[in-house]
Amino acid sequence: MKVTKLKDIAQLLGISVTTVSKALKDYPDISEETKQNVRVLAEKLNYKPSSLAVNFRNKETKILGLIIPEIVHYFFSNVIDGIINEAEKMGYLVITLQSNESFELEQKQIELLLDQRVDGIIISLSNQTKTFDHLKKVIRQETPMVIIDRITDEINCSKVIIDDEKAAYQAVEHLIKIGCKRIVHINGPLIPKNSMDRLIGYKKALADYNIPYDDSLVYSCEQFHYQDGIDAANQALKDHNDIDGIFAITDLLATGAMTALKNHGKRIPEDVSVIGFSNWRLSELITPSLSTVEQPNFEMGKQAVSLLLNEIKARKEEKMIENFLVKLPTKLIERASTKPTVKANPS
Amino acid sequence: MKVTKLKDIAQLLGISVTTVSKALKDYPDISEETKQNVRVLAEKLNYKPSSLAVNFRNKETKILGLIIPEIVHYFFSNVIDGIINEAEKMGYLVITLQSNESFELEQKQIELLLDQRVDGIIISLSNQTKTFDHLKKVIRQETPMVIIDRITDEINCSKVIIDDEKAAYQAVEHLIKIGCKRIVHINGPLIPKNSMDRLIGYKKALADYNIPYDDSLVYSCEQFHYQDGIDAANQALKDHNDIDGIFAITDLLATGAMTALKNHGKRIPEDVSVIGFSNWRLSELITPSLSTVEQPNFEMGKQAVSLLLNEIKARKEEKMIENFLVKLPTKLIERASTKPTVKANPS
């Protein structure tokens, strides 16, 4: 792959290299039109500035910026743990910000981190983020960035995700293997990508085991609260009298679903098996304990820092910047809320 | 109260003001003996440097440092939430570090934050912290500091705590009011102060209701894990056949205790009432749901930032620095694990 240089953009637009450089840095003496043209072309050609420009622009601060949707959250607090620990080991401190699932706050926080001249940014997108100008600005300003968990295809940079599709597949396959045929799927809003990928995994597992997909078995919650799980399962029990399995997109929704099942006199797992997603701390403490899919959350944080520091280093050494997509594997955890897997007798 | 000045220290020791100033700033040309004398006296007189020196020393970074024992922890993640939100509202960013309950790491992290020239530090002490030279250095270097939740009397600065004694009193009083007489107390290591204060609250409630204190009913766990709660309650059931209430120092220990009670065929709350401490998310999800004491964790973070920023401002304006001890009130939450409070009939 040919590396795009400032010169290439300048030639294609018929302007000087200096003008291109100034346009990308948002200098006031360049017209908005020119800036726009330069940006569009830079984006299209996947232009990555050389480290010389970066070194010229600012000195290292040894500080990384982190924007996370929620801190009081078992998954994300583990991710933060992984990030902070790895960063500190490598000599970096981390400024943590919480977007509270607000697109507006996320935009503002990107500005704060750029103003602070952090050496790099790690971000997990808010539920509300559907446009990406603020992230394009990070790329344009030549600040290394890694997006984790809640990602988008619209931005070219390294990303770390859980293999959501495969994880959902594992969970549903487990339900099928213990004999479930009418499996309810309780999920959340299909933006960002995670919910969608888990739905795809659900469908794929059904297809591979010749169980017809029935979209009346899929319930989408607007939030991920305990009560949403109760409501979804209540509705499912009202709509169908033959359900024998529930795959919920989070452990908290699964816990709510279990409460609804109990209130309807359904035995877990004898009548309905339930499996969640995330392996929260509560999952082994509730009765019956909840089968789930464990996500490598600490590892995700660690990998994100490692990718970010590699990019910071590559830029310093004027090496080409490569973008990676790291998909971390998950682990099925069987507990009392699903029937035990039938094991073949040794012969 | 008279404000101590550099001059006072110089006069008392019979050395020059410059020597005192240099000693406090750890200049290499001052002897260790002189430094030691100056430090001891400065400490004794509660010397607080004027803001002029501070302004001279460094410019504002608009960054605060935060050291917390554990991030993946319901209480602390809520505290962090409060701190980050309040700081951001006031125009400050927060570098978060996790001591992992390690004294060694905590010392190193204080150095990192001082090197980074943060405008102020908020810290909650690790379980292992029994000496305080690293914190004395922060005071000496004139960096504003607030200690939260896990505090010490050995350092003069503002502090924010939960009123642990009163909270424990509330919990035990609740058990007494519903008829419990043989109340087990499951606690943790008595350092830092929190466990000790809760034990005092336990004793005080018993005394006020004329129930003799029996130290064979107090079980101290080395850790705060689920299994520790199980072990402590198992031991209590082995030692005593008449217990009718358990007050555990955390919800997770209480949850473990409930599991042990169930395994022994004890009904909750008919045979034994159980109350926890913290109101974790899991507490309303387990069966029976757990009565507990709610701590104002988010509020604690908010108050800490507010105190810290007030001190930063006071120093800038060369005003006198006052130290505050803020005790935040808690709230009793009655759920199914304790018998309902008997209400007098309206007459």
TrEMBL record, chains A, B:
The keyword Transcription applies. GO terms for molecular function: DNA-binding transcription factor activity; transcription cis-regulatory region binding. It comes from the Bacteria. Residues 4-58 form the HTH lacI-type domain. Pfam families: LacI, Peripla_BP_1. InterPro entries: HTH_LacI, Lambda_DNA-bd_dom_sf, Peripla_BP/Lac1_sug-bd_dom, Peripla_BP_I. Coiled coil: none annotated. Transmembrane segments: none annotated. The keyword Transcription regulation applies. Keywords: DNA-binding, Transcription, Transcription regulation. PANTHER family: HTH-TYPE TRANSCRIPTIONAL REGULATOR GALS, LACI-RELATED TRANSCRIPTIONAL REPRESSOR. This is Substrate-binding domain-containing protein.
